[in-house]
Amino acid sequence: MASTAVQMLCVALGTIGLIGVIICSGLPRWVVGHQDDTEFHYGLSMECKNQSTGRMQCTKFDSIPSELQAARAMTAISCIFGILSLLLLSFGADFTTCIQNKNSKTKMIQTAGVGLMLAGMLVIIPVSLVAHNILRNKQCLSRDIGASIYIGWAAGMLMILTQGLLLSFGRPRAAGALSSSGAARISSRTSSTTVSSGGVTATSFALVSSYHSDRV
Transmembrane ranges (predicted)? Predict the structure, then answer.
């Protein structure tokens, strides 16, 4: 029951982390720049201008900077890993009956944990690199860290936390242990039956011997 509750919690946390990665990659808030009365917001695929009047205009990049190209590729792979890992976790969890073999469930849980860890790292690395470049060139370019960077950090750490919980407390009970305990119970029952049968045989032999003695 404890592992089932942990698995359900991991599914919920992993889903929140995956949603965070999707928001991080889609929201044009990676880099915030200022020029006169205009505020610029740069994402992985578009640039938005927020004027002092409150009007925002977004346009797609004609040519994406190299660092944002790498970040977009890594966050896309992170989303793929996250989706596949959550599917494996859902099919291999104790609260679903899609897979009956306990050994297969254990392997699926372990694979899902590794996939969630990779998904978390693949979103933390690009947001950290972009944040490092922003802080390094902040004085000359007048740029700040956008909200997407913080969302990416939170989503990546949540996925890594989910992986730790899953591999530490969420693994299903091994099939080998169950088979051993079942075999031990069957063996003890067989021994008891054998002992009981031996006692009945001895009693029957004693009665037959007593009968023959009386006849003699």
Answer: 70-91, 112-135, 147-169
